[in-house]
Write a structure and sequence with these properties.
With 385 residues, the chain is α/β, with parallel strands linked by helices. The chain is built from 13 helices and 12 strands. The protein has a 7-stranded mixed beta sheet with strand order 2-8-7-6-5-3-4, sandwiched between helices. It has a 3-stranded antiparallel beta sheet with strand order 9-10-12, covered by helices on one side. A two-stranded parallel sheet has the order 1-11. Strand 6, helix 8 (193-196) and strand 7 form a beta-alpha-beta unit.
């Protein structure tokens, strides 16, 4: 009798997360109960409006802000684009200056480069060998025409937590608004917009067990943006289009669950991440940790096996779902822009593996993952002798 196929082990939670069953359960009835247009005074419309605003309230509670400061979007990329493009008048782009960092997600870097093509000033701050932005560099980069500082809260590859609170304090002294892409942080660590001092914050639903296609943007009261999508006056006039009450409810439920189980989830994923790290460093000679040992997301382990391509490692362990770098540009075999910005040599960076733990993982799974990776590395090194 043949052995049953081994169950897959999913360690790519920074790439995306499965929809939480409770989120799906909260959404399902609304397909029939809240199908109306939330802007309509009809009974179906009022039910949709009720579900929409309930979801908005739950997102706001997780972030520590007012519901009126939450704008629903299609995800993190739209939220980021709305902020960066919303602070610059393209007809007078040369009057504006934007500051960002070299390790941002492409959903921030590419809009920033687009603004530069229009004539806006752009400063892309370097990072140190741990992948961290120096707040002092932000202070030096601010000039009279600076209209935005955009630095992510947690890096999607290294998990490094950026000094956003200090950056916000520096920018506030100069009257410059701050945006943070918090797609990787929300749901994994406590995120409070008041404590961070930011004016804009981006959320991606699929990073915290909500569906793809829904996100949120925190816009501090008193701050204004030119809409990315023009049309009717939905979402405070900042995002035209008929809202999806179902998706808003899904994101809201995901935020409610995250708030409820934040402490125990953080403790559980950190224990699994640390065990995975311990086993890999014990069994893989020359392994390198990319990013900080402390001050990173509790679920994130980004390591490199020098001299061995990360893609070749994963090809040999098909039941392990992980990443060789940032999921959004994982098809490329070039060195990750994050590792490049950190000064990691190509012979080290090309061996990168991003292993990110989530709610559904177990200690047994991470121990098995470590064994499979170590066995595969030994196999590849033996072939190269």
């Amino acid at each position: 009798m043949s052995k049953p196929a081994p169950s897959p082990i999913y360690l790519d939670h920074n790439g995306t997360t499965p929809v939480d069953p409770a989120v799906l359960a909260a959404m399902q009835p609304l397909f029939e109960e809240a199908w109306g247009n939330p802007s309509s005074p009809s009974a179906p419309g009022l039910r949709a409006r009720e579900a929409l605003e309930a979801g908005r309230g739950r997102v706001a509670r997780l972030l520590g802000c007012e519901p009126s400061e939450i704008v629903f979007t299609s995800g993190g990329s739209e939220s980021n684009n709305t902020v960066l493009k919303g602070v610059v008048n393209p007809a007078e782009a040369s009057r504006y200056h934007v500051i960002t960092s070299s390790i941002e997600h492409p959903a921030v870097l590419n809009p920033a480069l687009y603004l530069a093509e229009l004539g806006a000033g752009l400063t892309v701050l370097p990072v140190d060998g741990q992948g961290l932005v120096d707040p002092g560099a932000v202070r030096e980069a601010i000039e009279p025409r600076t209209v935005l500082v955009s630095v992510m809260l947690a890096n999607n590859e290294t998990g490094a937590l950026q000094p956003v609170r200090e950056i916000s304090r520096i920018a506030r002294e100069r009257g410059v608004p701050v945006h943070t892409d918090a797609a990787q942080a929300v749901g994994k660590i406590p995120v409070d917009v008041g404590g961070l001092g930011v004016d804009f914050l981006s959320v991606a639903g699929h990073k915290l067990y909500a569906p793809k296609g829904v996100g949120a943007l925190f816009v501090r009261k008193g701050r204004s943006l030119t809409p990315l999508i023009h049309g009717a006056a939905q979402e405070r006039g900042l995002r035209a289009g008929t809202e999806s009450a179902v998706l808003a409810a899904g994101l809201g439920e995901a935020c409610r669950i995250a708030a409820e189980r934040m402490d125990r989830d953080m403790k559980a994923v950190r224990a699994m991440r640390d065990r995975l790290q311990e086993l890999l460093f014990e069994s893989v000679d020359g392994l390198v940790l990319n990013g900080p040992q402390e001050g990173r997301l509790p679920n994130t382990l980004f390591v490199s096996v020098p001299g061995v391509e990360g893609g070749r490692i994963l090809e040999g362990v098909p039941t392990l779902y992980a990443s060789t770098g940032a999921a959004c540009h994982d098809r490329s075999v070039t060195l990750s822009h994050v590792l490049s910005a950190m000064g990691v040599p190509p012979e080290v960076g090309m061996g990168a593996l991003r292993l990110t733990v989530g709610r559904s993982n177990s200690m047994g799974q991470v121990e098995e993952a470590a064994r499979m990776i170590a066995d595969r590395v030994r196999e590849l090194r033996k072939e190269e002798r």
